[in-house]
Amino acid sequence: MTSEENKNNTNIQQPEVSNKDIITGCGCLIGILLVIGALVGSCCSNMNKDIPDNSSTTAASNPPINKNLITKESFNGEWPFKADSVELYCVDLGGYLTGVKVVIEGSTYAVTRNLEERHTFLPYNEWKDAKMEGLLCNGVYIEKQCKVSLADTVNFANTLCD
Questions:
Q1: Do 102 and 130 reside in the same domain of the chain?
Q2: Is the pTM of this model over 0.70?
Q3: How many other CB atoms are found less than 10 A from the CB of residue 83?
């Protein structure tokens, strides 16, 4: 290159680039990446169509999360049932809410009031009487009856949800 050609090259004006041009360019690049991501995502989701879904729980039916056959002898707490063994369930109600139900000899009952729309609440004939000391009930006093508190049962059932 001659010295005159060098002078001519230094006189070339560079185009001015504004911040608006840079932002527009970045926006276009991001848009292109989003389109590519969407295409790849739809491609991959179609590949998984033949993979069976093994999840058997649905939010609509709210099936029990866990069940546990418990007996009067093995229960750590105050036993509230007249039966010697029951199946205790923790039911996921969604939104961090749970309920407790019990199956006694094939009949299902709500132990917590938030399941009463689905199951009859634990009837008094299945619920063990608590001791009376004078006029004081050592449990829950309901409709002139003194019944064993369900607190230990509910606390235990809630551990089944974890």
A1: yes
A2: no
A3: 13
